[in-house]
């Protein structure tokens, strides 16, 4: 099998066993897929499943155990050999067919007819890193039956201001030694590449805002080229504003039939159990003190790189709260928002002009 040169390093990276060990040791990740698949057992039984980027094949085995008639486990890297061994180890050779190919190169001879379900663990850091969602979209458009299921079927990116002790506060006193010079160099490195680390939930200093919501049944690759958010956040505590925290959640299909089971959600939010994705942190050049009610305004852009479809550039622009339009019922301490809120609350009580 030949792949485009621009993808060689990407597929090669997934031949590293340590990457698969990291993912397979991620209990929230594994549990979410396992629960979602078996909660939808009645929709999977006797059906044909396509596993996009199957890796070691664990999701394919889940689907086979849930009753799938046929599972096509498609893997472009050399890891497909390991997947085949794991399929054999679990005595699923009569159900799971491991295919060494990119989704883009699959032929109707390899997958005859349409499939009922697509399953894929395509998410990267801040959801979009590595651009694997494009392959899921291609698989959906080429191979999925109308009204077929996609696991997961929706995803959301969140953003909120935060403090980042690992790059700021910690270095103020390292066993009695100030190391601001070292902290400054760390921040300079972070300007070039966002941090990926677990942040304590108490470091979030505002309510999160949805940067984007993605419906995998409808989204196109063009929709993923650029995501923009303007956020007028309001600090809910006294603290320091040192960066923006990004995380994502994924939602799986709602179980069909007479069931009270809620759809499964996989979250990388700071107050949820840690995953290998952790959170993505965009670091500010300098720390800013905030109070309860302080407005924090910024523009966030996540844009696909012109050099590689698998990479994104993240741009953060800090805005002057005085020059940005605030939303209705903004709870910041600026005079204009206090006056607008007072007026809106007055009208809500029926005390505005003309009220009887």
TrEMBL record:
<keyword id="KW-0489">Methyltransferase</keyword>
<keyword id="KW-0808">Transferase</keyword>
<dbReference type="InterPro" id="IPR029063">
    <property type="entry name" value="SAM-dependent_MTases_sf"/>
</dbReference>
<dbReference type="GO" id="GO:0042054">
    <property type="term" value="F:histone methyltransferase activity"/>
</dbReference>
<dbReference type="GO" id="GO:0035242">
    <property type="term" value="F:protein-arginine omega-N asymmetric methyltransferase activity"/>
</dbReference>
<dbReference type="GO" id="GO:0032259">
    <property type="term" value="P:methylation"/>
</dbReference>
<dbReference type="Pfam" id="PF06325">
    <property type="entry name" value="PrmA"/>
</dbReference>
<dbReference type="GO" id="GO:0035241">
    <property type="term" value="F:protein-arginine omega-N monomethyltransferase activity"/>
</dbReference>
<keyword id="KW-0949">S-adenosyl-L-methionine</keyword>
<dbReference type="Pfam" id="PF22528">
    <property type="entry name" value="PRMT_C"/>
</dbReference>
<dbReference type="InterPro" id="IPR025799">
    <property type="entry name" value="Arg_MeTrfase"/>
</dbReference>
<protein>
    <recommendedName>
        <fullName>type I protein arginine methyltransferase</fullName>
        <ecNumber>2.1.1.319</ecNumber>
    </recommendedName>
</protein>
<dbReference type="GO" id="GO:0005634">
    <property type="term" value="C:nucleus"/>
</dbReference>
<feature type="domain" description="Protein arginine N-methyltransferase">
    <location>
        <begin position="154"/>
        <end position="316"/>
    </location>
</feature>
<dbReference type="InterPro" id="IPR055135">
    <property type="entry name" value="PRMT_dom"/>
</dbReference>
């Amino acid at each position: 099998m030949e792949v485009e040169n621009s993808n060689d390093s990407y597929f090669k990276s997934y031949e590293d066993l340590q990457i698969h060990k990291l993912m397979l040791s991620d209990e929230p990740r594994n549990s979410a897929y396992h629960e979602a698949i078996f909660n939808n057992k009645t929709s999977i039984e006797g059906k044909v499943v396509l596993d996009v980027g199957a890796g070691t094949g664990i999701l394919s085995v889940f689907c086979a155990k849930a009753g799938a008639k046929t599972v096509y486990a498609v893997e472009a890297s050399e890891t497909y050999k390991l997947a085949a061994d794991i399929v054999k180890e679990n005595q699923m050779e009569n159900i799971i067919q491991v295919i060494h190919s990119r989704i883009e190169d699959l032929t109707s001879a390899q997958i005859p007819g349409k499939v009922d379900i697509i399953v894929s663990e395509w998410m990267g850091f801040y959801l979009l890193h590595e651009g694997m969602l494009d392959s899921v979209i291609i698989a959906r458009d080429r191979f999925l039956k109308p009204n077929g299921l996609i696991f997961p079927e929706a995803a959301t990116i969140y953003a909120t201001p935060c403090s980042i002790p690992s790059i700021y506060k910690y270095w103020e006193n390292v066993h009695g030694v100030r190391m601001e010079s070292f902290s400054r160099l760390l921040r300079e490195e972070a300007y070039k590449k966002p941090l990926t680390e677990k942040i304590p939930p108490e470091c979030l200093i505002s309510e999160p805002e949805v940067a984007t919501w993605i419906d995998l049944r409808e989204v196109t690759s063009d929709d993923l080229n650029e995501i923009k958010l303007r956020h007028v956040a309001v600090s809910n505590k006294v603290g320091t504003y040192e960066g923006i925290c990004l995380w994502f959640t994924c939602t799986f299909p709602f179980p069909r039939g007479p069931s009270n089971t809620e759809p499964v959600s996989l979250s990388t939010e700071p107050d949820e159990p840690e995953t290998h994705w952790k959170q993505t942190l965009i670091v500010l050049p300098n720390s800013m003190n905030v109070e309860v009610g302080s407005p924090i305004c910024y523009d966030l852009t996540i844009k696909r790189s012109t050099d590689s479809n698998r990479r994104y550039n993240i741009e953060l622009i800090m805005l002057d709260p005085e020059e940005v339009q605030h939303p209705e019922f903004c709870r910041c301490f600026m005079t204009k928002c206090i006056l607008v809120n007072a007026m809106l609350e007055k009208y809500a009580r029926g005390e505005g002009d003309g009220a009887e």
